[in-house]
Amino acid sequence: MALTLRSTTSFLSPVDPTSKLLHKPGVDDALPCCAAVPAAPHAAAPGRRLRLVRAAAPAPAAGRAPAEAAELLHAGGAVHEHGRARGGVPVYVMLPLDTVGPGGQLSRQRAVAASLMALRGAGVEGVMVDVWWGVVEREGPGRYDWEAYAELVRMVERAGLRLQAVMSFHQCGGNVGDTCNIPLPPWVLEEMSSNPDIVYTDRSGRRNPEYISLGCDTLPVLKGRTPIQVYTDYMRSFRERFRDYLGNVIAEIQVGMGPCGELRYPSYPEANGTWRFPGIGEFQCYDKYMRASLEAAAVAAGHEEWGRGGPHDAGEYKQMPEETGFFRHDGTWSTEYGQFFLEWYSGMLLEHGDRVLAAAEAVFGGTGATLSAKVAGIHWHYGTRSHAAELTAGYYNTRHRDGYAPIARMLAKRGAVLNFTCMEMKDEQQPQHASCSPEQLVRQVKAAASAAGVELAGENALERYDEAAFSQVVSTARGAGLAAFTYLRMNKTLFDGDNWREFVSFVRAMADGGTRPALPRCDTGHSDLYVGFLDAAKERKAPEAEGAATATAAAW
């Protein structure tokens, strides 16, 4: 016998208005009125697109049958509040690195389209894509080709999903997980050839072409423009091309600020076997622009001799902390000189991040799109006093100093979300000799974000499909109060049998947040609520999602 409850009391909970990751209702979302919503008329022309509000019913996406736009609120499940299910965390999925290839072509369109629909059926909020500088501006300075990305945005919209767009000012290739090679624009590579000092350089003179050195941020080294001007022009062109989608389909702009799109120095490059885990990495401060800055800082500190180069005893990429004079237990890092150098080195990175984010804020402010920045989860040697691997990457974080608080404050200044990696990792799974502690690191970053008033979002650092990894993310998300989580990555393997089932369960767990679905805010009385209806609705969708995954895997 079905149990029915008749309510005369509101079950409302206060709505959290603080999240920056605003939610665009889709046809499967719970609508904020207890009535069936008729199909909306055809959408207005793109130039007259209206901002969606919670009190309005969503127009059906292109290609969707009008009948699907009419639905009863109670069938929707948990109420969404600014991008997350009540008590839960919205999940995004990273698209393949070569979704838009080096020649500006949209790759595997049939597989991508099928995958987007399968993800939607699983309850995923949206997807993330790298918007490669090396692809878009490949034909020459100021010549932008957005066509493949425009088609992708339309595909995402048709699937009823949202998009996180990464302004990828770095090259693809040479790091963990890089499966393709997308260099910086050819005209930038020409500038590198004529002036090698515009890229990061280590103590032995090895140049790294992944990203332009922050030492020349404000110098006209790119055919008369500064790197900051080039990044600004690129973002401005993106804004103009996708103006009608920003703040609705394009929910977030993640601003790349270093290798792998992360705010850091390229201190641990895997290309050509330069670095190997768990090596300490090397300082990247030997191009002429960084050296000039160091010299000036040393003179200002009254120690001209400190500006003659980076630490001479910092070792090499693959070494361990205790094998070096700088990073060992009571090494040079803890001396007056060490403190001076590390403050300068990390300070330069912070200033770079602030400059790039200031440009992004000026471009995207008022569009409704959230800004975010990615910080690397460098968890090896976290258990040592010096935290060597973090120091070479530019994070001045040691046993006695919080290196993430200044980063969080800088992001707060620009209204950006802090996106952090290694959310899937557990301390007990790491090799003991590497002194890893990803869990403690995440807790520290969470505390820094909370103190600065910055929202925290997360990613997994490595591809994982097992229940243990998903459970760790769910646990971390609940403890850290994540604004969103982006899963790495969409590929054929994700849609294979057990992997897909684990993933769908994970998405549901993130949406539920460990609590029962909330009742609609307008349910103020006399509602007939069938206990278990929402769970039953989820079960009905499970076979559909699994069938879509099977078809999707075949499309790859």
TrEMBL record:
From the UniProt record, which GO molecular function terms apply? beta-amylase activity
- Which reaction is the catalytic activity of this chain? Hydrolysis of (1->4)-alpha-D-glucosidic linkages in polysaccharides so as to remove successive maltose units from the non-reducing ends of the chains
> Per its UniProt record, what Pfam families does this chain match?
Glyco_hydro_14 (PF01373)
Q: Which UniProt keywords apply?
A: Carbohydrate metabolism, Glycosidase, Hydrolase, Polysaccharide degradation
Look up keyword DNA-binding and say if it applies: no
Please state which protein family the record places this protein in. Answer: Belongs to the glycosyl hydrolase 14 family.
Q: What is this protein called?
A: Beta-amylase
- The organism encoding this protein is Panicum hallii var. hallii
